[in-house]
Amino acid sequence: MSIADQATARWQQVPVSDRRALSICGVFLLLVFGYIGVLDPLVSRYDSVGRELAELRGRQSSNARKIALLPRREARLAQYRAQRNDLEQRFQPGVESVDQAVSRSIAEFTYYARLSDVDISSVRPQSEAAAGEYIELPFELEVSGDYNSLRKFIYYIDTSPSVLAVTRLQLKPATDSMVRADLQVTDVIRIAEADTDQQQTPLTNSNRLRLVIPDWPGFLPLWVAENEGYLDSDRYSIEIIDEHDKITLERLMLSGQVDAIGLTLADLLGYWVIGLPLKVVRPVSRAIGTEGIVVSNNSSISSVVELKGQRIAVDEQGLLPYVLHQALRESEVNSSDIVGVPREASQVARELRSGLLEAGVTREPWLSSLLADGHVRQIYGNQNSLPGVLDLLAVYSPVNNDKQAVVQFLINALYRAEVFMSQNADLTVQLLADRLATNTVVAEQLLIKVSMFDHDESMQFFESQEIAERLLNYQQYFNETDQPVPLITAADIIDSSYIEAVSKESGHDR
């Protein structure tokens, strides 16, 4: 008998109850060994995976918070960098001659006095004193005004983009509610080498130019020039500064921190009124139909005449008040017949869209957006006799004395940018879309309304009477609206010498 048969026979001899117990024990042992060998590792692995998942979720939550904070941190970092750059500019005086510093400082004092409603009786430059590589140039000022006006005047001096400091202040007894004061204000400059050793050494900042342009499609060639690297070379550097506050911009110009600006003719005349003589060195673009008077779709107003007695929102500065004035004039409506509500163009668009306004004057890019969305109807614009808008490049007149070469370099960069735009239409549209934070469809629609001046058209512009004719129109507008108007001619505000020089160098001389 085999061993298997013997085992079976013996198993049969075991009582049934014992066999059942032994079977249960065997199954139990199998389960125990199975748990130890299979299930326990799986349970341990499951617990491990659960812990890893919990850790990953914790890390995800932590990273999510960091990602949410990242834009704010980047914005704060950009703000700190801008503040650092401002401080570096603030405490690193530019190189200039004493005569230039005297002229600039007196212009600043006069401007700050106008802003703060202070009268300046006299300004007397004193003998300069050397302080290392710097020169301290003191001025004695006699001023008068009420207490708050004097405080504002001193604040403007203390926060000037130039390195100005009030080093002495003596108040005199007030008469007729006017406080009189003697001030000593010191301007810190770095002296030009030409003043110290009589050598004709060019100024160290004469090859740098700082330019401010608005966020407007008409100045696209300058963005292209910046993007393609046309504004920098081994010899010249042009920086586009992002500054849109009017008061700050005026102060930067007076202090020599800004040399050139992109603007309309109406804006240029406004600068002449406050004592900032700007010279047009190049037309950049002409825009048609980029401004308009619009009314809500729910409004019963269908024409400019029906604006009588109505509230209409319009910006107090720039071109839009002129657009409204022209519309009223053509419809024989007096400005006193409407109620003007001061609003910026972007705010006009927002309030029209939300139903808070019934009528307003706005411009691109908001005008096209409102019309496309069906929120408004246009009752005045390019379908009327509204002239096209001229976008101009102008320099602050003192720049002409020491930065002729770099201004000419800027004009040449514009010419190169326009050539690039004519050969790379798709890239140009994409660049505009990126700059305005919009899509290429909107960018293309905007460019339909804007035509750029090429080199030959720019030359013809200076030879034509267009500036003179527009100047007369604006002067009439200023007179009719009781605004101060500068007594200037077209010859006072244009300088074609730069583009003529570029024309000769580039072989476009006609």
SSE layout and pairing:
Layout: H1 3-13, H2 16-90, E1 95-96, H3 98-116, E2 119-125, E3 129-131, E4 134-145, H4 147-158, E5 164-175, E6 178-191, H5 193-197, E7 208-212, H6 220-227, E8 237-241, H7 246-254, E9 260-264, H8 265-273, E10 278-287, E11 291-296, E12 311-314, H9 320-330, E13 339-342, H10 345-353, E14 359-363, H11 366-373, E15 376-380, E16 389-396, H12 399-402, H13 404-423, H14 425-436, H15 440-448, E17 450-452, H16 455-463, H17 466-480, H18 490-493, H19 497-505
Parallel strand pairs: 1-6, 7-8, 7-9, 12-13
Antiparallel strand pairs: 2-4, 3-4, 4-6, 5-6, 9-16, 10-16, 10-17, 11-14, 11-15
Summarize, please:
Mean pLDDT is 81; it is low at 194-204. Strand 3 (129-131) and strand 4 (134-145) form a beta hairpin.
Descriptive overview:
Strand 3 (129-131) and strand 4 form a beta hairpin. The chain has helices at residues 3-13, 16-90, 98-116, 147-158, 193-197, 220-227, 246-254, 265-273, 320-330, 345-353, 366-373, 399-402, 404-423, 425-436, 440-448, 455-463, 466-480, 490-493, 497-505; strands at residues 95-96, 119-125, 129-131, 134-145, 164-175, 178-191, 208-212, 237-241, 260-264, 278-287, 291-296, 311-314, 339-342, 359-363, 376-380, 389-396, 450-452. It is α+β, with helices and mostly antiparallel strands. Strands 1, 2, 3, 4, 5 and 6 form a six-stranded mixed beta sheet that branches. The protein is elongated and about 135 Å long. 51% of the residues lie in helices and 22% in strands. Mean pLDDT is 81; it is low at 194-204. The N and C termini lie far apart (127 Å). The protein has 19 helices and 17 strands. Helix 6 (220-227) crosses helix 13 (404-423), helix 13 (404-423) packs across helix 19 (497-505) and helix 14 (425-436) crosses helix 15.
